[in-house]
Amino acid sequence: MFPRPIEKSGPAAKAAYQAFLPVALILWLLPLLAIFLTSIRSAADINSGNVFGWPSEFALIENYAAVFTQSAAAQYMLNSVLITVPSVVISVALACLAGYALAIYRFRVALPLFFLFVAGNFIPFQILMVPVRDMSVQTGLYDTIAGQFLFHAAFQTGFCTLFMRNFIKALPFDLVESARIEGVAEWRIFWYVVLPLVRPAIAALAVLIFTFVWNDFFWANVLTQGESAKPITAGVRALNGQFVNNWHLVSAASLLAAIPPVVCFFLMQRHFIAGLTLGAVK
Amino acid sequence: MADAVATDTRTRSEPGFFRRNKLAIAPWIFLIPALIFFAIYVVIPIFESLWLSLYQWNGLYDADGNSTAVWVGFDNYVRLWSDPNFWTSLRNNIAWLVLYMLAVPAGLFIALFLNQTVTGMRFYKSMFFFPFVISQVVVGLIFGWFYNPDFGVVGTVWKAIFCEETTNILGNTTFRCERPVPDILSSEQWATYGIIAAGLWPQIAYCMILYLTGLNNVAADQIEAARLDGAKGWKMLWYVVVPQLKPATFIAVVVTVIGALRSFDMIAIMTQGGPFGSTNVLSHYMFEVAISEYGERYGYGSSIATVLFGIMLIFISYFLWRMYQDEKGGR
Fold first, then answer.
1. Between chains, do A122 and B319 touch, taking CB under 8 Å as contact?
2. Best residue in B112, B135, B255, B271 to probe A by mutation, most A CBs within 10 Å?
3. Rounded mean pLDDT of A184-206?
4. Do B27 and A107 lie within an 8 Å CB cutoff?
5. How many CB atoms lie under 10 A from the CB of residue A5?
6. What is the DSSP secondary-structure string of B55-70?
7. What pLDDT score was predicted for residue B6?
């Protein structure tokens, strides 16, 4: 293990380390703590300039309720859910199929196709922006929920396929081989042999894609204009304009936008990290 | 006799075309839904954008449904060459690329700091990772407020160090400062660096988690062997640990390069490219040009996107080449 375990340096070093950890954490999360403190302040505190000291009174519920009653935040949150969930389901489902094909079968274009999905995952969004926007306008998908989740599902399929293909490739191939010898149909091998084994990969992808799509801001601006289809990330920006100088409300709204991915992360931490660090070890 | 039996069985149960070729056909059936989806939304639009960059178009159609785009050849690129905003954006992109790379060593050092097994370590590790989970929009808002000279953290700390608080007869508080409080995001000189610093926060968290996973898998026997040979500290880190972290470093560099070139959200939230275009990067400038209040300029926007795509392509080719080497070695 590197660095050398702190226990071996004696109890004093260990105690010092443990005492320093919370200090380091507070410094690291200082911007977040500061904005949280702001979000529970009262308007009076903000106006009198007490933005950094201890709040004179706590207005947690008032502020968060105000965000919902004075703005379209509830609508934005609902839109975000309606965009994110179908994106996750579609992209993960497509990737299971495509990843299986690219990992199990040996055919000449398997590797080029795989690299196509990988490359698509790295391109800048701007190169897609004008055609996708134009296509959405032409097909009536502009400023709709469906227009957004269809795009996200297609784009995230690249990353999901990369992930799934590598995951399935690492499974023992004998399983498929022996099923074939038994005469099991190909789709049944997929459904009954491989799919149960990739459940951890599905879980990891689901949390990752949820976070990626939830946090999207660019496409929300490109593919929507009104309140009816805007997700919370774009909504927070709109609120920022609406609540000028009401920093307690702006910060409450920002934190609200951050809650779902954070909850998702803490509930499925192991899968989340396994997904992100895929390939970081050999 | 044996021949006769063989022909006999073949005629009796001649397998259908699909049956005989199932190993050649099956992969395409599994692939088709993803391929169609991916082609419509990703592959074809790339070529459409490249093509569109040779036109001038405001995004409108005439009454018959034909696009009003006009062929201009390489005019858009000629205009780019003499567009000062384009060069500012490109310079800022390079600044992003270079400074964003700090996330890799910074992530490694935090990972080394946290790679212990004292009680509660899991909690600390996940809390350090926290900034990555939050949307960049929220990170941008947090830092926009953090940098605010009047009531942000930077302003408050600065006032505590350099300013003297005076209260006049009416009870209003004013500050007399030795040096004026810096307004980072309104300064043409500093705003970009302010945004990059904000962007580093989640990116360091990402690199840290990559390295924590990597450190978990460092071969313990090699470390012990090196320790017996008297290696420790920096030497141990550089010659024994870092080489073993190569896969983690590769991924960290990949995601950091992509993140730097994709930076859009923070700029849109914190400065919208201002003041006077000084914080623009290609991704944001393209958006500004293509969808602006002065009418849409799809052709010119596409030419900016093409330049950005070209830059990305250099990196993408390198990553794919590396992956190809691994694939060849692995099979």
1. yes
2. B135
3. 92
4. yes
5. 13
6. EE--S-B-TTS-B--E
7. 46
Q: Which of B135, B265, B306 sits opposite A258 (nearest CB)?
A: B135
Contact A91, A153 (CB under 8 A): yes
Structural domain span for residue A35? 6-68
Q: What is the pLDDT of residues B230-263, one digit of tens each?
A: 887 888 888 888 999 998 999 899 999 999 999 9
- CA A39 to chain CA centroid, Å, is 23
Do A177 and B99 contact (CB within 8 A), yes or no?
no
Using CB atoms, which residue from A5, A257, A269 is nearest to B117? A5
Contacts of B213 in chain A (CB under 8 A): 273, 277, 280-281
Q: Which of B201, B210, B283 sits opposite A124 (nearest CB)?
A: B283
Number of domains in chain A: 2
CA-based Rg of chain A, rounded to a whole angstrom? 24
pLDDT tens track, chain B, 331 positions: 444 444 444 444 566 777 777 778 889 999 999 999 999 999 999 999 999 999 988 888 888 878 888 888 899 999 999 999 999 999 999 999 999 999 999 999 999 999 988 888 889 998 999 899 999 998 998 898 888 887 777 877 787 788 777 777 766 667 777 777 788 888 888 899 999 999 999 999 999 999 998 998 888 888 888 888 888 788 888 888 899 999 899 989 999 999 999 999 999 999 888 788 899 999 999 999 998 766 788 999 999 999 999 999 999 999 999 888 888 875 4
What residue type is A257 in one-letter code?
A
* Six-digit token string for A94: 């497509």
Whether residue A48 sits in one domain with residue A85? no
* Contact at CB, A157 and B38, closer than 8 angstroms: yes
Q: Taking the CB of residue A140, how many other CB atoms lie within 10 A of it? A: 10
Q: Contact A142/B25 with Cβ under 8 angstroms?
A: no
Query: Per-residue pLDDT tens for B52-77?
Result: 999 988 888 888 878 888 888 899 99
Is residue A39 located within the same domain as residue A88?
A: no
> Same domain, yes or no, for A230 and A157?
yes
Q: Domain ranges in chain B? A: 84-330
| Pick from A257, A253, A260: nearest CA to A70 | A253
How far is A111 from A103, CA to CA, in rounded Å?
9
CATH number of domain containing A80: 1.10.3720.10
What ipTM score was computed for the predicted complex, to two decimals? 0.89
Count of residues making up chain A: 282
CATH number of B84-330: 1.10.3720.10
CB A29 within 8 A of CB B127: yes
d(Cα B303, Cα A105) in Å, to the nearest integer? 39
Nearest of B99, B51, B8 to residue B281 by alpha carbon: B99
Residue A158 lies in a domain: yes
Q: Which residues on chain A are in Cβ contact (under 8 Å) with B231? A: none
